[in-house]
TrEMBL record, chain A:
<keyword id="KW-1003">Cell membrane</keyword>
<dbReference type="GO" id="GO:0005886">
    <property type="term" value="C:plasma membrane"/>
</dbReference>
<feature type="transmembrane region" description="Helical">
    <location>
        <begin position="105"/>
        <end position="131"/>
    </location>
</feature>
<comment type="similarity">
    <text>Belongs to the binding-protein-dependent transport system permease family.</text>
</comment>
<feature type="transmembrane region" description="Helical">
    <location>
        <begin position="7"/>
        <end position="27"/>
    </location>
</feature>
<feature type="transmembrane region" description="Helical">
    <location>
        <begin position="143"/>
        <end position="166"/>
    </location>
</feature>
<dbReference type="GO" id="GO:0055085">
    <property type="term" value="P:transmembrane transport"/>
</dbReference>
<feature type="transmembrane region" description="Helical">
    <location>
        <begin position="227"/>
        <end position="250"/>
    </location>
</feature>
<protein>
    <submittedName>
        <fullName>NitT/TauT family transport system permease protein</fullName>
    </submittedName>
</protein>
Automatic annotation (TrEMBL), chain B:
<keyword id="KW-0813">Transport</keyword>
<dbReference type="InterPro" id="IPR027417">
    <property type="entry name" value="P-loop_NTPase"/>
</dbReference>
<feature type="domain" description="ABC transporter">
    <location>
        <begin position="8"/>
        <end position="235"/>
    </location>
</feature>
<dbReference type="InterPro" id="IPR050166">
    <property type="entry name" value="ABC_transporter_ATP-bind"/>
</dbReference>
<dbReference type="GO" id="GO:0005524">
    <property type="term" value="F:ATP binding"/>
</dbReference>
<protein>
    <submittedName>
        <fullName>NitT/TauT family transport system ATP-binding protein</fullName>
    </submittedName>
</protein>
<dbReference type="InterPro" id="IPR003593">
    <property type="entry name" value="AAA+_ATPase"/>
</dbReference>
<dbReference type="InterPro" id="IPR003439">
    <property type="entry name" value="ABC_transporter-like_ATP-bd"/>
</dbReference>
<dbReference type="GO" id="GO:0016887">
    <property type="term" value="F:ATP hydrolysis activity"/>
</dbReference>
Length: 307, 259
């Protein structure tokens, strides 16, 4: 709990910056609206206001600052607008409704989890191959690294379209994009983890005349656990990003990605921001869940956590 | 005279490194009898650890012959003829003390009852009974090293190979462990090969002291200790003890004279 205060400080600062930014970001829209409602603004015409920068316009019209926080379609929604939208779309509509963020969260989450399982399993298997097979050691790692240099935004539509053309639709294409993003940290972490036992440890097993599988199950695998969990935490958040990106290019009708797209296309930034926060909260919960499993597992293994 | 447990003749070992060949062992001749406590002492690079690793089958000689229990070192390793104690305790942090000592027993496929009985017995042997459920980080360095000795004893190999097991411990702990090791040796009758940097430790523990010198690693003196088997710590003030220590020191100096 010692970390509560620093975290709270950072959160407060972020919200303060955000709140302060709402005024200049929305001031032009607000001034236009105020002009239509016969509230005095300077300069008077929209054309003249276009010439004025956001901050100086805001300074000239301090009386309409309050209105910048309540626009229906703001450039930058205020924190309380996003919170209200989150509350409305989470708690006031049935979770099965299309207007419920829970519904969209589940659509994205199911792809994320499936993709994460595929990615983590592939990552672990590849790592075992790399550690035990010289050819794979030389051959796989460069490709794994190369795979991550391709922008996922370029690749995702190709995956969706190609799989769609052979009749694979829905969950699986998104999960594959998730897996594509999440296998990499797992490979890197597991290779390091499986190689973490030192020479002495391996010599010791050699003096027992232990077999290869025994060395794997009794030394390398348990030794790799701290590394595995560190990479799983990165992997699961990458998975969520993958699932959202997978929803963007094809105009998916459900999921966080779809929700963001809808907000964008219909000029409803509050919707986009609510989806964004929904995704961030989901990611935080996923990472927290992995942390919990990590704590339990390493605790049972008698290992003290670093933090 | 029974056949020696470990026998080396004209043993040679050259490592091929990027900086050219390194002559680690040259013309090593040595017999170790059953129940002997043999110490290897010498400066860094004299090949004492390398010789121990050869006996363990962790290195293979490039010349000469070496037999352990009448077999090749590798065959002896596969027959689990020895327990090896490294300089660091090397306990698995994710296993309790009991779990660590079970490790070789699991690998060698002992029955569950047998595992339990053996863990109990060796923990008593190293005076760690009652610490079964502790994890390594809950123990002091000396206790960890005792646990690693218990681990090496658990499967009842007749030979114990120890590579500077107390090198990282402070002198008070080391004295205590030396005493315990002698008691353990007296009770079990194991053959022990022990690598050390300490003249006092070598003379105090051993029935036979092998003095080695570097470049190339070779034996310069072998001293049969006339000290009795029963050795209280204050035997180190005995004139005989001091004589032997002096001879060891001379041997070490001689090895250095020609470089």
């Amino acid at each position: 709990m010692r970390s509560a205060l620093p975290i709270a400080t950072v959160v407060v600062v972020i919200f303060a910056i955000w709140t302060a930014a709402v005024v200049p970001m929305n001031i032009h829209l607000t001034a236009d609206l105020a002009g239509r409602q016969d509230i005095a603004v300077t300069p008077e015409t929209p054309r003249e206001r276009q010439e004025v920068g956001a901050i100086s316009l805001a300074l000239q019209n301090t009386s309409i600052w309050g209105m910048t926080y309540t626009l229906d379609r703001p450039n930058l929604p205020s924190p309380h607008q996003v919170a209200a939208e989150l509350y409305k779309s989470v708690f006031t509509v049935a979770p099965t409704s299309r207007r419920s963020l829970i519904y969209h969260a589940w659509v994205t989450l199911s792809a994320t989890l499936l993709g994460f399982l595929i990615g983590a399993a592939a990552g672990i298997l590849l790592a075992v191959g790399i550690v035990y097979n010289r050819t794979m050691d030389k051959a796989v790692m460069p490709w794994a690294i190369t795979s991550q240099t391709i922008p996922i935004l370029a690749l995702a539509p190709m995956v969706i379209v190609m799989l769609g053309s052979i009749g694979v639709q829905g969950l699986l294409p998104k999960a594959i994009i998730s897996a594509y993003l999440s296998f990499f940290p797992v490979v890197v972490g597991m290779v390091k983890g499986l190689r973490s036992p030192d020479h002495m440890q391996l010599d010791l097993l050699h003096t027992y005349n232990a077999s290869g599988p025994q060395a794997f199950w009794k030394l390398r695998l348990p030794g790799s656990m701290p590394y595995l969990f560190a990479s799983l935490k990165i992997g699961i958040s990458a998975s969520l990003v993958g699932a959202i990106v997978g929803e963007l290019p094809t105009g998916a009708r459900a999921g966080f990605g779809a929700r963001m797209l809808v907000g964008d296309q219909y000029g409803q930034p509050i919707l986009t921001w609510a989806a964004l926060f929904g995704a961030a909260i989901t990611a935080a919960l996923l990472v927290a869940a992995i942390s919990l499993i990590e704590r339990k597992t390493l605790g049972r293994m008698g290992m003290r956590m670093a933090a | 005279m029974t056949a020696p447990v470990i026998s080396a003749s004209s043993l040679d070992l050259t490592f091929q490194t990027n900086d050219g060949p390194v002559h680690a062992l040259s013309d090593v001749n040595l017999d170790i009898g059953k129940g002997d406590f043999v110490s290897f002492i010498g400066p860094s690079g004299c090949g004492k650890t390398t010789f121990l690793r050869c006996i363990a089958g962790l290195e293979t000689q490039t010349g000469g012959t070496l037999s352990v229990n009448g077999m090749s070192p590798d065959a002896a390793r596969r027959a689990r003829a020895y327990g090896y104690v490294f300089q660091a305790a090397g306990l698995y942090p994710w296993r309790t003390l009991e779990g660590n000592i079970r490790l070789p027993l699991e690998i060698m496929g002992f029955s569950e009852d047998e595992k339990k009985a053996r863990v109990k017995r060796v923990l008593e042997l190293v005076e760690l009974a009652g610490f079964e459920k502790k994890f390594p980080w809950q123990l002091s360095g000396g206790m960890q090293q005792r646990a690693s000795i218990a681990r090496a004893l658990a499967f009842d190999a007749e030979i114990l190979l120890m590579d500077e097991p107390f090198g990282a411990l402070d002198e008070i702990v080391r004295d205590h462990l030396n005493e315990q090791l002698l008691a353990l040796w007296a009770r079990t009758g194991k053959t022990i090969a022990f690598v050390t940097h300490s003249i006092t430790e070598a003379v105090y523990l051993s029935t036979k002291i092998v003095v080695m010198s570097p470049r190339p690693g070779r034996i310069t003196d072998v001293i049969e200790s006339p000290l009795p088997k029963e050795r209280p710590l204050d035997i180190r003030d005995d004139p005989t003890f001091i004589d032997i220590a002096h001879r060891v020191r001379e041997g070490l100096r001689l090895g250095h004279a020609d470089d």
